[in-house]
Design brief:
Layout lengths: L4 E5 L5 H13 L7 E5 L23 H10 L7 H14 L10 H23 L3 E3 L2 E5 L7 H11 L5 E4 L3 E5 L4 E5 L12 H12 L7 H7 L14 H6 L1 H10 L3 H14 L6 H12 L25 E5 L4 H6 L6 H13 L7 E4 L6 E4 L2 E4 L4 H18 L3 E5 L1 H8 L5 H4 L4 E2 L5 E5 L2 H5 L4 H26 L1
Parallel strand pairs: 1-2, 4-5, 8-9, 8-12, 12-14
Antiparallel strand pairs: 3-4, 5-6, 6-7, 10-11, 13-14
Helix pairs in contact: 1-3, 2-4, 3-4, 4-5, 11-14, 13-18, 14-15
Amino acid sequence: MIDVYRVTLSAPDDFDGWREAARDLAEAGVPASAVVWQVEGGAADLFGTDATQPAAASFPVPRSFVELAGDVVCHADPERFALLYALLLRLRYDRHALEDAADTLVRRLQDLAKAVRRDVHKMHAFVRFRELDGLFVAFFEPEHHIVRRAAGFFVDRFTNMVWSILTPELSIHWDGTNLSEGPGAAPADAPAGDPLEETWRTYYSSIFNPARLKVGAMLKEMPKKYWRNMPETSLVQPLIATARMRELEMIDRSDAKEGLLHALEAERSIEPGGNLRASWEALLKDARKCTRCELYKFGTQTVFGEGPLDASIMFVGEQPGDQEDLAGRPFVGPAGQLFDEALEAAGIDRSAVYVTNAVKHFKFVMRGKRRIHNKPDAGEISACRWWLEHERELIRPPVTVALGATAARSLVGKAVTISKVRGEPLMLGDGSECWVTAHPSSILRAPDEAARREGRRLFLRDLKRIKARAEELAR
């Protein structure tokens, strides 16, 4: 008879407890079918005798798995612990098991992690504090067990406030120095409003642009379940109802063109959810401390993306080069100069697009005193995909451009041949388009001047098509 091990975790998001138990069970070779995972106070899906977990030394797993597990544990799926343990057993014997993006188990866990990250982003974006006798209180209903995971953002963002965030599962409280937890709460436990909300509603109404209203996209990004906790959403229904009439009025006015330009500028200055810029800055801060793969030990610094957070086009390169590594900015070396020239020739303003890389640290080999580019491997691309996915989730570009095969692999999840996919859009998981073209450095490395001229011609042709497509989607 096979012994059944029941592991009871202290909380639905008890990552440390799961990791310790899973590591010891895996080291002892306990099969996934023999482990029952449950949360304290909850019912297990199987019955088994309580057993002492076998004591054993730990074994190494890729850092990318630890990051993945940290997200997945916060999901509401009751099978999450068992699924992670099943993958952990594979990783014990195949360290690269997580790199197979086509594997059913890997894809399912990645989907769970993505849902958790999206829920964290929504909590960052849609929490609205209301003042109550000097205390700022908010109510939020997450879909997953993300409250503890999301708390650090609010501590960093609102350090000087005394606040509480109430959720049905648990509440978190910040007194200006310490973060504490309390029991769950109901919407009625949070204040219904405060005097500042009328000012906020007036401001939201004044910058609302009916000409750019996309109801479907709005509901996708801000489902109605969040509306009752956000002061500005009380205006959404009447603004939608009168949108067409207001749009016609804008067109009829003699100063319509100037007014539309002002409205567009005002809209660009507004950060969706009020926290987009803060979310990006928090992501940048975390990226600067990235140790997800070994490359951080050798590069000078993390080279993160740059550009407007409402960009309609995102360009993704391979990795920073020598000059980018020293400057801390993407595409500033020889390939960057060619890139800038091609953008200008195609009529694309670089200051209006977001530019980043699939891998954020410079990988190189030394030749004398020179640092020579060395192509990142699949594990390094996979480890750094976490940052790129977060950049795309924040910016939500309608068009993402993969500059070279490495960027395409990071975005699509598999190796692609540029010549086969060039010139036609590929659909990404979020419904946006990915266009694949050559990396500017490959043009510079062409064997002769004729080949370089042809490379520039094709690159410019691609950029013009991409510009036209981005404009078409914007309409």
